[in-house]
Amino acid sequence: MTTFHVKKGDEVVVIAGAEKGKRGKIISVASKKQRVIVEGVRMMKKHMRKSQDSPQGAIIEREGTIHISNVMAAEKFDARAAKRSPAPAKT
Asked: What does each C-alpha distance from 13 to 36, 47, 78, 91 come to in angstroms?
């Protein structure tokens, strides 16, 4: 089994792709596919079949997967951003 730089429950920042800059908590990790599901990121609509729970059927929104290389731990991202920010000029 491979180990990854993030795990379920971690706060992450999306660093690449259409959702770049968004933050969220990891809901699940698919290790064989090297993908993660992040809360509130890559929302997609899913059409639900008619059932007893929803006799009319429904369209629900749920999170899609993102490749694990496109996310970074939030604390590491913040540390990197603080290091890159311009230091105040000394006079």
From this structure: 12, 28, 9, 36
The whole-number pLDDT of residue 75 equals 94
Strands (E), 15-90: 23-30, 35-38, 43-48, 58-63, 65-67, 71-73
Render pLDDT for 18-63 as a digit per residue (tens, 0 to 9): 999 999 999 999 999 999 999 999 999 999 999 998 899 999 999 9
pTM listed for this prediction: 0.82
Q: H/E element holding 13? A: strand 11-14
Q: Give the per-residue pLDDT at 2.
A: 79
Contacts of 67 (CB under 8 A, 6+ apart): 34, 35
Determine the Cα–Cα distance for residues 83 and 81; give it in Å rounded to an integer.
5
Angstrom distance (rounded) from CA 67 to CA 83: 26
Helix (H, G, I), strand (E, B) or coil at 33: coil
